[in-house]
Amino acid sequence: MLDKYFKALKLYGYCAxxxxxxxxxxxxxxxxxxxxxxxxxxxxxxxxxPETSAVDDVVLSEQEQAIQxxxQxxxQxxxQxxxxxxxxxxxxxxxxxxxxSFSDITAPSSVLVVNGTKPGPTLCLTAAIHGDELNGIEIVxxxxxxxxxxxxxxxxxxxxxxxxEGFKRASxxxxxxxxxxxxxxxxxxGSYASRIAYSFFYQIVDKCNYLIDIHxxxxxxxxxxxxxxxxxxxSVADLAGKMGSIVVLQSRGGSGTLRRAATDAGIPAVTLExxxxxxxxxxxxxxxxxxxxAALRSLGFTSKSFxxxxxxxxxxxxxxxxxxxxxxxxxxxxLGDSVxxxxxxxxxxxxxxxxxxxxxxxxxxxxxxxxxxxIMYPGFAAYHIGLKSSAVEAAQPPEPADEVxxxxxxxxxxxxxxxxxxxxxxxxxxxxxxxxxTKPQVQEATTIEEMELPTADSSD
Length: 460
Ligand SMILES: [Zn+2]
Description:
Layout: H1 2-27, H2 30-33, H3 43-48, H4 62-72, E1 79-81, E2 84-86, E3 90-96, E4 109-115, E5 118-127, H5 135-146, E6 153-159, H6 164-168, H7 192-203, E7 210-215, E8 221-229, H8 234-240, E9 247-250, H9 258-264, E10 269-275, H10 282-298, E11 314-323, E12 327-331, E13 338-339, E14 344-349, E15 356-360, E16 365-371, E17 375-376, E18 381-389, H11 391-395, H12 400-403, E19 406-409, E20 423-424, E21 426-430, H13 431-437, H14 439-445
Parallel strand pairs: 5-6, 5-7, 7-10, 8-9, 9-11, 15-20
Antiparallel strand pairs: 1-2, 3-4, 4-6, 8-10, 8-16, 11-18, 11-21, 12-14, 12-17, 13-16, 14-15, 16-18, 19-21
Bound molecules: zinc ion.
């Protein structure tokens, strides 16, 4: 009897051992059984292997969401430009050339591209369309090499020297003495300038969603850092408002300028003017970099600006004060100075007759552009006075009375006092009036290609 009991117990023990062994072997096969045994998986195991959990309504922790979200974001597309592909998250240096130019005597221009990892629009930065305007070249270099492809949304295309032939000769113009910035968007079978404009516009600018074209004053004139924009176009006004704390000057932009052509093609475009030609000016460059940095952040290209600050821009309309007499100019004001009616702007001295003539302001405003000290002739634009206004006022077309050339300060007198300055000689012209009387009308009257257009007083 007892024997039987022990035999039964022994048998039970074998069975229990066998069952235990079986269970152990089942647990050792994770692939086939893990999903079938969700209750057995501890919480810590769940967090390690969430993807194999069979629980349908898993609530992800914040940390897990942060890990998974980037995988769900759409990626930036590869950028197709100038026959090349720039992959997302990479930078590249491409080359642009007029296909039909002499490849053995003209070098192609370099085009810097940074394509971000996150999707977004494309911004174009262009400089030295006028070959003697050096500040923009350095601004583009600094901005482009500051950008990090893995932190960028969208793409930025930077062309440091558009007019390479002018740059090599330290000249504003192309070799045929034409101003490239009067020929955009150009024509395929037009003049040399028109063909270059066409190639540049349709191969590069046409790929952009925004354009910032960088210039300096021209022809011995210097500009206070400023944005020029056609504020009556809402998309342009929006872009101009995203460039940090900088003077914004209402200007429609002359026909044939890259800015005007881009805006007409539906690409919001502004000109950034800073400093003087034939110079590399530290402060002018820094202001330019700061302004573009603010734009990059406001437009969502970068999460961080090169410059932190959010002061509102200041809007201006403007008029030019011209020299009524010829002579050597010695300025009495500096860029950015505030002036009132009657403020002495500069003196013109005649080296032959020893006559000295004053140029006084006829306006209350701020000096946003001015001639460098130089020999001037009657009618030369000497001081560009910005008249503060709201963005809305600046965008309005000028009053009819302003359309005509103003001549407000002609109390000119002969100097009979041994060279003492006794005369006031200045005249003012509304800047927007210049736009409409010089560039566009001339160009609309005949083919752009055949005209040597009047040079601008300070502009893009
Ligand atoms: Zn220029």
